Amino acid sequence: MESSPKCMDSENFFGDTALHAAARSGNPKIVQLPLHNSADPNKTNHRGSTALHIECFLPLNETNNNVSVDPYTKIAAILLCKPTLVIDIQDINSYTPLHIAGQRGCYEMVKLLIDSGASLTAKTRMDSKGQGGRTPEGMAKFGRHDATADIIKQMAKVIERGEAVVMKKKAFVLIG
Predict the structure, then answer these.
(1) Could you give phi then psi for residue 120, rounded to 5 degrees?
(2) Helix (H, G, I), strand (E, B), or coil: what is residue 175?
(3) Which domain holds residue 107?
(4) Which of 87, 99, 132, 163 makes the best surface tag, with the fewest CB within 10 Å?
(5) Which spans of this chain does UniProt mark as ANK repeats (predicted)?
(6) Could you give the 3-state DSSP secondary structure of residue 30?
(7) pLDDT tens column, 128-157
(8) Distance between CA 9 and CA 88 in Å, rounded?
């Protein structure tokens, strides 16, 4: 890979790039390779998913006390530190990474995304049955993750009051 940086955004049958594959590995060092070779962190596969979408779907069960920082959350932090990353890209279902993390109850991932400036008001597309139109908080409730929904709701109130300063500080601490 290092000798052919132009291949970084080549796609497989599913539209996945080297960065998508590296993101699934759960190994932050593997993710660094395509990023250091100019891989586009905003490149989407055929489902409209970026590497960040994948990271938000894969975090380990957060009750696992053997891991200090979930490797997928750490990879998300690495991606969030890329200045070109667009955090709120929507996939084919209109899900942003925060929608996915919220629905799956990935509390630490949700906090990281919010701290990095993810939209709390983005809505999913309405389907033909009139379902959808959910915000990240709504997705957390839909997934029955009350604690995750609560943190999103609390942060939305803080932002409404103009008290939030959005920085990527937490992401930089996680990748330390």
Answers:
(1) -90, -5
(2) helix
(3) 5-175
(4) 163
(5) 14-46, 93-125
(6) helix
(7) 777 789 999 999 999 999 999 999 999 888
(8) 20
Domain count, the chain: 1
For the residues of 110-172, what is the DSSP string, one character each?
A: HHHHHHTT--SS--PPP-TTS-----HHHHHHHTT-HHHHHHHHHHHHHHHTT-----SHHHH
The residue whose two tokens read 């006390």 is 65
Full-prediction pTM beyond 0.90?
Answer: no
CATH code assigned at 103: 1.25.40.20
Picking from 127, 158, 154, 152, the residue whose alpha carbon sits closest to that of residue 139 is 152
**Which helix (H) or strand (E) element contains residue 4?**
none
Q: Which helix (H) or strand (E) holds 34?
A: helix 28-36
For 44, residues 6+ apart whose C-beta sits below 8 A from its C-beta are: 15, 50, 89, 91
The rounded distance, in Å, linking the Cα atoms of 147 and 156 is 14
Report the 10 Å Cβ neighbour count for 84.
Answer: 7
Taking the C-alpha atoms of residue 72 and residue 26, their distance in angstroms, rounded to an integer, is 6
Q: Quick one: pLDDT at residue 91?
A: 96
**Residue from 4, 72, 59, 65 nearest 34 by CA:** 4
Give the amino acid at 135: T
Helix-, strand-, coil-residue percentages of the chain, each rounded to 5: 50, 0, 50
